[in-house]
Amino acid sequence: MDTYNQIAIGVDVGGSHIISAAVNLSELQILPETTFSVKVDNKAKKEVVLETWSKAINKTIAHIPDKENVNIGFAIPGPFDYGKGVALYEGENDKYVNMYGVSVPNELTRYLDSENVNFRFLNDATSFGVGIASQGDAKQYRKIIVVTLGTGFGSAFVKEGIPQVNHVEVPKNGCLWDKPFKQGIGDDYFSTRWCIKRYQELSSEKVKGVKEIAEANNNHAQTVFEEFGANMAEFMIPFLQKFRPELLVLGGNISHASKFFLPTLKSGVQSAGLDIDFEISFLMEDAAILGSAQLFESHFWNQIKNNLPNI
Predict the structure, then answer these.
(1) What is the C-alpha to C-alpha distance for residues 265 and 252, in angstroms, rounded to an integer?
(2) Distance between CA atoms of residues 28 and 287, nearest Å
(3) What is the pTM (predicted TM-score) of this model?
(4) Rounded distance, CA 178 to CA 170, Å?
(5) Which of 164-168, 180-184, 226-230, 237-241 has the lowest mean pLDDT?
(6) Is residue 84 within 8 Å of residue 270, measured between CB atoms?
(7) Are 202 and 224 in contact (CB under 8 A)?
(8) Which is the most buried residue in 30, 47, 132, 284, by most CB within 10 A?
(9) Rounded to an integer, what distance in angstroms lies between the CA atom of residue 187 and that of residue 180?
(10) In which band, very low, low, confident or very high, does the pLDDT at 285 lie, cut at 50, 70 and 90?
């Protein structure tokens, strides 16, 4: 592997900001002083969004040795055609609505400070899961499930470092957010909006986020978190029984309040006879950047390139 191939840029596209960093693929480490974050108005016109994205990426490009040949891996939320790099966001999605039908490789290139750019794309939750699996204690586990709990409910089923998308042991597309649960789908119950709504139902108080509920630390907050943990155990058990992971990793903003709901989740899972370790990850964007940059590691790419979801 020559020096050029050892470096790829990982990009994490969020609803409110974009983060870009260069990754040394041989060591799976983010290069110092290459991480840049820029705020994004996701309701802006496509030209404004693309220009904003390019601001962060161009700063990273300026800090890598080979600026003429650049590999960029994107961790980006769905709905998205990951094989072709085309955004499929529509009105009801409430994010990047003016990006619908935009081919990122075709249209972003003219904003970038490089002659030759290669693009690859992976779901943001999957990228996060891949990044987690390659770092710290999670490296010791063969099979892990990573869930992100925040504005939405993301997931990744990872076996020996490779995300499982089309596999008999995992749900369709390796996704949990769209699977039926109670009166709706997983995303309705394991996201910030459920916590806010449930707390308001109990307390008649409108809060902005989960942090405020955790800080309130009253009976209503306790009920919200206990219900959250019990619901999550009930929802996850069938998927845990099928995939049989050794570790369940929780990330995302809601995981910062894990001390309030994790005991209920653990006891629910254990009562189903499952022996699984739990971990809270605070790697956040770093994990998604490490995961998306790995799209340019040849072994990893060859394992997943034919299983990129179109969701």
Answers:
(1) 16
(2) 10
(3) 0.88
(4) 13
(5) 164-168
(6) no
(7) yes
(8) 132
(9) 9
(10) confident
Residue whose pair of structure tokens reads 């020096």 in the numeric block: 3
DSSP assignment letter at 103: B
Residues 33-50: what's their mean pLDDT? Answer: 95
Q: Which residues of 52-84 are buried (b: 16+ CB within 10 A; e: fewer)?
A: bbbbbbbbbbebbeeeeebbbbbbbbbebbbee
Helices 219-243 and 192-203, interaxial angle, to 10°? 140
Query: What local confidence, expressed as pLDDT, does residue 310 receive?
Result: 64
State the pairing for strand pair 162-163/153-159: antiparallel
Which residues are bridge partners to 10 per DSSP?
21, 73
DSSP state letter for 35: -
The token pair at 196 is 């806010």
Is residue 123 classed as helix, strand or coil in its secondary structure?
A: strand
- Which whole-number Å values give the CA distances from 277 to 48, 113, 143, 218, in the listed order? 44, 45, 11, 29
Taking the CB of residue 156, how many other CB atoms lie within 10 A of it? 31
Determine the pLDDT at residue 309: 66
Measured CA to CA, the distance from residue 121 to residue 79 in angstroms comes to 12
| CA distances, 134 to each of 48, 140, 143, 212, 278 (Å) | 34, 9, 12, 33, 16
Cα–Cα distance between 230 and 265 in angstroms, integer? 6
d(CA 144, CA 248): 6
Q: Distance between alpha carbon 140 and the CA centroid of its chain, in Å?
A: 21
Which residue's structure tokens are 């990850």?
A: 281
Amino acid at position 221, single letter: A
Give the burial class of 197: count Cβ atoms within 10 A of its Cβ; 0-12 exposed, 13-18 middle, 19 or more buried: middle
135-139, 171-175, 194-198, 299-303: the lowest-pLDDT one: 135-139
Mapped onto helix, strand or coil, the DSSP state of residue 280 is strand
